[in-house]
Specification:
single chain; Immunoglobulin-like; 589 residues
Length: 589
Amino acid sequence: MRKWKVFLSLLFIFIFINSLAFAAAYPLKYFDVKVDGKNLRVREVPIIMDGKEIHLDAPSYITPAGVTFVPVRFITEHYGAKVEWIDSTKTAVISTSNGTEIKLTINSQNVYINGKKQVIAAEWVPKLVTLKAGEYPRTMVPLRFVSEVLGYEVGYNGERGVPFINSPKNNGDDKGDNNDGTGGDGNTATNKVKEVKNEIVDGKQAIVIYKTDNVEVKSLKLTNPVRLVYDLTNSTLANGSYFNYDFSIGPVKGVRVSQFSPDVVRVVLDIKDGITSPEVKIVESKDKLVIIPISKLNEVIQYTNNGSNKLITINTGEKDDYDVDYDEKTKTMTVEVYSRDLDLEEGSMDIYDGLVNTIAVKKEKGVYKFVITFLRSIEYDILNSKDREIKLSIRKNQNVKPSDFVIVVDAGHGGHDPGATQNGVKEKDINLQVAIKLNNALKEAGYNTIMTRDTDEFVQLKDRAGIANNNNVDIFISLHCNSASAASATGIEVLYCPPEGSSLKKGDDYPLAQLLMDELAKGTGAVKRGVKKRPELAVLNGTSMPAALIEMGFITNSQEAKNLQSDSYQNKIVESIVRAVNIYFQTYY
């Protein structure tokens, strides 16, 4: 173990020195190539091999998908491999002195490694490429795939913007290295790695490596892309030199096993894109090594925002039974997954993109419930699900109408509580007069309404909020009049509770408050005093739905007191509120 630490220290020093030597970024140089009869814009790059910059007569390049392609002759010149071209099938056969053979066919995802079929990603498919007009097409192959199979470390220097490769070390000593592929020959080790399987261990999906002896296992993490590597010392593969397994478990998208050196078997866990800190649990015994990937919510759920259409993908590990239920009233979707293979911790993730609020998961009696809350009414489609995933296409419901919504109209104060009193005016009376008019106007517009009071009675603040919460209403509007010690104070302001001001809030109340403020200022011509946070107000912090409290004007100002008693001015207030409500539902539902 001490030698291993020494090696890592030397490795870090080497990387540091190497980064200093190549600190300058490689200049961006783009050119067009012709692939499959179409022009493709690519970026020319050199290859950094063992710290040296290599330029080819036919340039290597990076595609828009981020894949580096090199001419197939690069393999012969720099890897010492032999390449045979079979014209009838457009197949390149790459073979090395240690017996590794790779067959790559133009435009095919099917490759053969030592006679065994593997399927590569579509963006890695070999191509016949015309690099310059008038030249013959050249066979271009994916650098990473070929290099890793042949035992080379492949990475990307982010500072310089160029790919690099490092030659494999096949001396079999205890220094280790940073490679990630195959290499070496001989059979001096005592431990035999017999097979690798995807099994259920203690109710969880696991990668199980069957072996014959209790050997030291060294682990390291490689980046760009992220991989977890496990080296089994004093070991040989029993039935070949390279195997690729299509295991998708939690953060793991695939497993590769190779004879890394004469007495080291390397197991590489390829990690799904976007996951930078994968976690696994290791359980080792004499005859097997068990690796249990640990799933996190953001690794199981992928959320893609494509403008008006959103895509939610739930990776289930394998094809499972599931139910999808959407509650229009609460704007909540529940996806129940009946899976015995998922091993997922409970948790939640915030989205808040104007349509999706949160995605949470909880487990009840072996059933995972993915709960998705929305800001507005939605429509959705369940796309044709593949094995191991459920795909949901989400979009805003364009068919919402006023009758789909319920609004609480709250006339502030009442009964023995007159509110502010000045200039011969009681606030409770103005509030009730405007509330009744607003209630009638909203009903005429097609909305469902509830009034907290429609007579001169006193209603507790908690009861006003309770009326709204118990009836699952969509918005809450409370009407009040303002007062100040200075008779000159004038204007309208709208109060709201920010999300952090109440544990009941499911979203942000500010959009509703701002729309009300804008429309009231335009409709009445009154001074626009703005939108203000007031999380201490019970009717705002005690309501779970969007809520706003409107201070319609100052009864301590003689002119505004007259306005607030005027039918025509009250009608302007009502018309402004209805406009704001219409805009709010059109925008946010």
